[in-house]
Amino acid sequence: MSKKARFDVRLVVPPVATGALILGIWYFVSYVILDPKRRFLLRPPHEVWSVGFANGDNFSEMMEGLLATSKTAFWGLLTAILLGFLLAVIMSQAKFVERAIFPYAVVLQAIPILAIVPLIGFWFGYGFMPRVFICVIIALFPIIVNTLFGLLSAEQGLHDLLTLHNTNRVTRLRKLMFPAALPAVFAGLRISAGLSVIGAIVGDFYFGQGEVGIGQLLKRYAARLDGEQLLAAVIVSSGLGVLVFTFFGWLANRVVGKWAGESRGA
GO CC terms on record (predicted)? Predict the structure, then answer.
């Protein structure tokens, strides 16, 4: 077996084995632990597949809800990225600005989102923008913290070298601080991407109005005790979070790796 084939086996076998173990435990709980009268609490995997995914009407309903949730999560994440980058850059340029803003960013992170969702609905209504606002609240802090940490992680010796050459702030930020911050920035993006999806689902779940997303479907299936569709919707929601997390991981490897290669070449 070639070295590449052995690497592929080591890469594929562990998650496949773990997935098979999870399915085995799932079947065991459904058929052995649960009484048949209580099996609606955890339907077996094949029933979840046949009702939630193989049924065209049910699957189409979930895909429409997934699309609505994805749009909310996308705009919430985009807004959080722009706002988080702006605040991090401003804080990185002056210590007193960081001391003035950072405590409120921590307070924003500490706010229990479930407690303020009803308030957001009262104040701003139950449409698209309030849901985006919830995503921003949840996703903003990791972007601020990781970007600020990355911007401040550049070596002091390089800062001193640029000072000797009378480099202005914009050039220093572009040539030194931003390249040094890239790994931390993408770490924050991967965290915030998943949090934005959670925010979109939470807002849709508690608002219960407007365009139907995954959150409203979860509430609907739970109210009707549709165990198969409920689990299918949970799997779809998790899949969306995994997808955006994987995308930013791939993007980080492309961008950070390319930047590092150009730096070595220079």
Answer: plasma membrane
Q: What is the pLDDT of residue 211?
A: 79
Angle at 153 between CA 151 and CA 156, to 5 degrees: 110
Mean pLDDT of the chain: 83
- Alpha carbons 135 and 143: distance in angstroms, whole number: 13
Q: Is residue 77 a contact partner of residue 135, using CB atoms and an 8 Å limit? A: yes
Question: Angle at which helices 128-151 and 95-110 pack, to 10 degrees?
Answer: 140
Angle, helix 56-93 to helix 227-265, in steps of 10 degrees? 40
Cβ-in-10-Å burial (0-12, 13-18, 19+) of 233 comes to: buried
Rounded to whole angstroms, how far apart are CA atoms 186 and 250? Answer: 10
Pull the structure tokens for residue 40: 């609606």
Distance of CA 129 to the CA centre of its chain: 19
**Sequence ranges of the domains in the chain:** 1-42, 55-265
Residue whose C-alpha is closest to residue 240's, from 81, 80, 114, 67? 67
- For residues 207 and 131, the answer to whether their CB atoms sit within 8 Å is yes
CATH level 3 topology of 55-265: MetI-like fold (1.10.3720)
- Per DSSP, the three-state class of 218 is helix
Q: Minimum mean pLDDT among 21-25, 166-170, 205-209, 217-221: which range?
A: 166-170
